[in-house]
Amino acid sequence: MKNEKIYVTKPSLPPLEEFIPSLEAIWNNRVLTNGGPFHQQLEQELCNHLGVKHISLFSNATVALLTALQALRVTGEVITTPYSFVATSHSLLWNGLKPVFVDIDPVTLNVDPAKIEAAITQQTTAIMPVHCYGHPCDVDAIQKIADLYNLKVIYDAAHSFGVEDERGSILNHGDLSILSFHATKVFNTFEGGAIICPDVKTKTRIDQLKNFGYVDEVTVVAPGTNGKMSEFNAALGLLQLKYIKLALERRGLIDGAYRERLRGVAGIECLDRSGETVSNFSYFPILVRPDYPISRDGLYERLKENSIHPRRYFYPLISSFSMYRSLPSSQPSNLPVATEAAQQVLCLPIYPDMEMEIVDKVCALIASLSTGAFTASRDI
Predict the structure, then answer these.
(1) Residues where N6-(pyridoxal phosphate)lysine occurs (predicted)?
(2) CATH number 1.10.10.10 is the correct assignment for the domain at 16-242
(3) For the residues 128-152, what does the mean pLDDT come to?
(4) CATH code for the part of the protein at 244-371
(5) Which of 33, 128, 159, 183 has its CA 20 to 30 A from that of 87?
(6) Which runs of consecutive H residues, i.e. helices, occur in the chain?
């Protein structure tokens, strides 16, 4: 591993020779997009694999978020979390909606249902929670609030491919769920995304919206966008799906190794995964607590000095960016748990072909810093 740069996530790539027949098929059938055979096959195989009724594939998850809000005709205010990637709230601004941020739970780092009800106004029409790091939200509490106030629930489930609770896929909760198939995700199509929906009528509307609003070549029924997944990306997804079980098993081993090696390191806390019946181990976040000898940012810099490139994920909070800072709900006093988490979180490298030697060295460095025994090395 000498001089190798180690990043938080790396794309899991199947053997190139297995992809050649798909490229030849795309070339021969001359269908590049607009719901070609690979696109249709991937939708069906994902439904089967994930245990969901309907999937609409997209060019990326951000366009899927934008379209989901359009599909449900969301207006006014949407309650969401400040502890996420900016695409979550950007999708609201692009639809002319007002984000209302509420604080997160200190254990799961998901939106705290206890904070949602107090944020509801006459303008509130929806809730957009995030299954942070793939850990399920308190879906029952959120749905109870939504039912009481007649609100839509759209889950940003970008991290949540294959995650299940005791009732099956967490993607079946809410009105819609959105997945990301970006190259850094556990299942990827290089770039891509999807909307999971419960019925054919909703899927039909979503499919029209992602194709400019076309019903047929002479009929447009809505001001849609171009969100279609290409045949190339769909074919890659079908190949990735063949290896997903192995990839998740490998991630699970790495997750377990991290937990074992970091157990007992003062000031380092690993997030609890007890709410997941089936996990995808999409990230490995740690919290660098005040009793660790150096700050989170100090640890971040020390790891980078040793060619390890973790990510402060999510930092800064969405609510601190200029386009959100003036919102009343963005005040740090309204978001104490999220503010603290953003200052302490650090996601360590995890990807299927990561060698245990790397895990050992990352953990040894973190442990040595906790005791003052650290000696700089560029061999990690």
Answers:
(1) 185
(2) no
(3) 97
(4) 3.90.1150.10
(5) 33
(6) 20-29, 37-50, 61-71, 87-94, 113-119, 139-149, 200-209, 231-242, 244-262, 296-305, 336-344, 356-371
